[in-house]
Amino acid sequence: DGPMPVILMGVVMTLVGLVFAAIFAAGPLLPRKRWVWIYGIVVIAIGLTSICTLPFSVFLLIFWLKPEAKAYYGHL
Q: N- to C-terminal Cα distance for the chain?
């Protein structure tokens, strides 16, 4: 077998990590539009899938569902 499966797994994990980093990093740079509020919900939902980020994601979700946050993005 050798080290090839480990190297391949490392490359795949790195690529997946870079894709998710780009998805999360794009959020603050997006315009104030209705679809960006939905984008935020989707990104928070991704965070809800891990036990490590679950507590932070719950607090973010509570904030994100407030009327003030919805109004900021014109999603009322």
A: 57
